[in-house]
Amino acid sequence: MSSGVADTAKDLETHDGHDGEHDAHAGHPTEAQYVKIALFLAVVTGIEVGLYYTSFSEVATNVTLLVLAGVKFVVVAAYFMHLKFDHPIVRRLFITGFVLACFCYVAYLVTLGVFL
Amino acid sequence: MTVTEQAGPAAPEAAHGDGHGHVTNTGLSNEKLAMWTFLGSECLLFGALISAYFLYRGKSTSGPTPEEIYDIPFTSVSSFVLLMSSLTMVLALAAIQRGDHRRLRVWLMATALLGATFIAGQVYEFTSFIREGLTIKTNLFGSSFFVLTGFHGVHVTLGIVMLLSLWNLSLRGKLPREKSEVVEIAGLYWHFVDVVWIVIFTVIYLIPT
To answer: How far is A52 from chain B (nearest CA, A)?
Structure first.
C-alpha cells in the first residue's frame, strides 16, 4: 500500500499534465495498427466461436474460452482505451477496481457454492 | 487543487495545448478521471449482474433453457459488429486529434450505426426468445439473462446518444480539435461497453451450463 502511494507521489512529481498529454498522444498506435489490432480481435472471436462447436474436453474448452476473452479484454483496454499509454494513475485506478470486483464476486460465488 | 490555483492567478489556465480544461495536479483532467472512476464502479455493477447469472445458472425448474434457445451464429455476428465499432470509435478519436473533422463525423456515425445494428440484433433476439416462451418472469434463467443483457443494451443505447450528440456538435462546428478529450471520454465509455460484452459473450453464451 505504502509503495503504491510512493509510486503515485513519484508519478505526480515526474508527470507534467501538459507535456505528458502530448507524449501520450504521440505514443498512440497509428490507424493501420488499430486496424491490425481489430483484425486480431476478430480472429480471436472466430477461434472462440469455433471452440464452442468442438467436442474437446469441456474443462479445457472453458478454460481456453476464458483465456481468449481475457486476451480480448486486455487488448481493447490497453490499445483502444489507451490504458497502455495513459497516465499510470488511470491504469492503477482501473486495474485495482477490476481486480477488487473480481475478487469480491468470486469470493461471493464460492461462498454460495456456485463452483462446487 | 489545480496547478493554476497552486501557481497563483497569474498562471495561464489554458496552458494545456489540447485545451483539456484546466490542468490538475494529477496531470489528468477532472472529466477524464471522473470517467475512469465511473467505469470502475461499472465493473462492480456488471460484476454483480454476471454473478447473479452464475448463481442462478442451471437452477431453473422449467424451460426454456439456454441450450434450447441460444442462436450462437447470430450472437457471434452481433459480437463482431460491436467489436468493430470499437475500431471505428478509436479512428474517430485519431481523426479529431489530427484536426480532420470530416473523418471524425464519418467514424462517429459509423460507430453509432454499428451500435444501432447491435441493438437491433438484441431486440430481434429478445423478441424471438419471448416468442419461444422465455420472458423475464418465466424462470431464473430468464430473469438473470434479461436483466444482464438488458442493462448492457441500455448502456449501448446511451452510448449511441452520446455519439450522435458529438456528431451533431461537430457538424455545427462546436467540437474543435482543442476539445478532442470530449471524444476520448465518450470513447472510453464506448470501449468499456465493448469489453463488458466480450465477457458476457464468453461466459453467458459460449460456456455451456
So the answer is: 6
The residue type found at B100 is D
Q: Is the pTM of this model over 0.95?
A: no
Q: Do B87 and A38 touch (CB under 8 A)?
A: yes
Beta bridge pairs of residue B2: B24
Radius of gyration of chain A (CA): 19
Phi, psi of B2 (to 5 degrees): -90, 165
Fold of B42-206: Four Helix Bundle (Hemerythrin (Met), subunit A) (1.20.120)
User: Which chain B residues contact residue A82 at CB under 8 A?
Assistant: 184
Q: What is the pLDDT of residue A26?
A: 61
Kindly state the average pLDDT of the residues B46-68. 87
Domain boundaries of chain B, sorted by first residue: 42-206
Using a CB-CB cut-off of 8 Å, the residues of chain A touching B191 are 76-77, 80-81
Angle made by CA atoms B200, B206, B209, in degrees to the nearest 5: 100
**Residue B177: which residues within 8 A CB-CB, separation 6 or more?**
B18, B96, B97, B98, B99
Residue B131 cell numbers, joined: 416468442
Sign of CA dihedral B80, B82, B88, B89: negative
pLDDT, residue A18, reads: 41
User: Could B37 and A25 be called an inter-chain contact, meaning their C-beta atoms sit closer than 8 Å?
Assistant: no
**ipTM, 2 dp:** 0.85
